[in-house]
Give the backbone structure.
Amino acid sequence: MSELRAPAAPKRHLLSIDELDRQDVERILETAESLAGSLEREVKKLPTLRGRTVVNLFYESSTRTLASFELAAKRLSADTMSIRSAGSSVDKGESLKDTALTLAAYEPDVIVVRHPSIGAPQLVARLTDAHVVNAGDGKHQHPTQALLDLYTMRRAFGRLEGLQVAIVGDVLHSRVARSLVQALGLVDARTVLVGPPTLVPRGIEALGCTVAHDIGAVADADVVYVLRMQHERMGQAFVPSLREYTALYGITPERVRVGQVVMHPGPMNRGVEIDPRVADSGAALVTDQVRAGLVVRMAVLYDVITVAPVELRERAEVA
Amino acid sequence: VLVGRDGRGDSLTLEGRVLAPTQRIDESLTITITDGVISAIEPGSPGGRVIAPAFVDPHVHLRTPGREDEETIRSGTEAAAAGGYCAILAMPNTDPVVDSSSVLGALVERAREEAVVPVGFMAAISKGQHGQELTEMAELASAGAAAFTDDGRPVVSAGLLRRALQYSALTDLRLALHCEEPSLSCGGHAHEGSVAAELGIGPYPSTAESVMVERDLSLARAEARPIHLMHLSARESVAALEHAQANGVPATGEVTPHHLVLTDDAVRSLDPNTKMNPPLRGEDDREALRDALRRGAIACVATDHAPHARQEKDVPFEEAPFGVTGLETSFAALYTHLVAPGILRLEALLERMSAGPARAFGLEEPRIEVGARANLVALDLDDEWTVAEDGFRSLSANSWLLGETLRGRVVKTVADGRLAYESSGAP
């Protein structure tokens, strides 16, 4: 009798929120919750991913995302290393393809990719056997940010379903906004995008949100999610001045009502998109988001490496 | 203006259902070719292949001189022959740009050695395609230029385009225009619409094309000069072209197979072979293009065959260059996606791939008659084949059809009297 072999588990990546369903989101958030409990212990390190390797490949500057992925891997006892484009062979003109193949030769379990171009993590996923986690690709997706935001909202409100979220600012250039709108849609929360017509892309409603150009639209929201206003957009005539942008869309204490929370993916431009009085108020959950980033990224690393694909589990139950 | 290898021709016979829409021929015939000339057309037995006037592609990037790793005159014309083409026109956006009679003359010489099917070379409208100064159009015309274009780039200055329209009247050659307003397209990598919005790809709105189409048509009308609008993609452009044609402006237009078959939905794959300039647009745009092709407002299919080296397309979507290959797949793609499902009649497709483009550029129409030089394509409409990376004669394989199974195969191509292509499976 021939030996029965389990089929090799198909690769699991986290490239885009688009590829997840509600079950996936809830499972990751549950994992994050239980990991959060373990981090309250005196010894914070878990043996879960001992012997596993996590490579962070970062082609863009990053503080919190890179730091939290590194720390997440370490807290789970994985071996980890981070490669930044500056100071690596990328400086010598090595293509993403060759860099990915080079790193793949070390047989990492996970490659975390941040890149200024949409599609870069997908390319790495096609070229290597590693699980690939998208840590931000161009203006496309930043799925772990969306998950940590959901985690933060759920902690604040005890639920996600039926929450009203207003995302304010430069949606056009924001991968955070795209991922978050999709993620909120998966958990039956409602989203309105608020910003000047030049910074809200045509056709974005197809993601399942509404669009408003008047800041008054934030009044009904449970969560006011403030996007970073990038200075370099001024030269491209998306808005006439930061002064006018702040006057029209800046989140000031007057625009925040009691019971609302304010979130921001960072880094903040205090005095531009967010008034410092709001940023430092009890309504602001910005540091909660950063804390959530660690446990959610731990959960994501655990999830891509260890959780069997949904299809397989369902088949097993039927059998 | 077409350069072939020499005047010699082959002798062969072709038998099948002869379909020459502009000549109203649709019957089973045997065509005898003697020394490259059709010497007899006699009744034949029914069934078998379709024999039609061979195709003409007015928009090919041969990448020569400068990027012979991507395409050469030989490989590009071999690809054309395999696609059923008896003539192609090459774009001047090479390195160096074809903007002087010396560069053009060298290409013509090389084509005499290498070209498997006759090729015509377009020359630039502006020196270096910089949009500043006109090229020496009269000298380029006498050196054999087929038309003038700055393709790859728009003529941004309305003043320069007006002068080009006026001055090119000295040559009888027309201007072929790439319509793109750079201040609207800059940073754009996909059609502005829900797909680009969802994916966060920089938007390239339809207006980037249509405002230039409208400007160029206005200038052509005012100067009473013919223009040809290249690779139209937006329904607003089609409407503007038809409006101008109805008002007597001598304007023609072309459409690519990829704009006729795909929409921007294909971009969701983030496959760099779905990235073209102009970009794949929406369902309404594709419908308008199909309709214009059906009615003849656009009478010309052009591949915009744009070879790229593998390493250039093996990168994230936004970093990839625009353009896909098309010479070897155009008939099968359009037969499979438009003719077989009943969207376009076979006769119309054959006409738009042959007589239409020839007329738009004042080239001799391939005809099936005794005494004419043989320019014929034999097609097996039932044959199915799968587009594979290693199946191309082109040096590049950046096709939007990789892995797709198509119906309809070019079996033989006779170009300027020579048997330029014969599929390996052909009896």
Observations:
- Residues 311 and 320 of chain B are 9 Å apart (CA to CA).
- Chain B is about 30% helix and 20% strand.
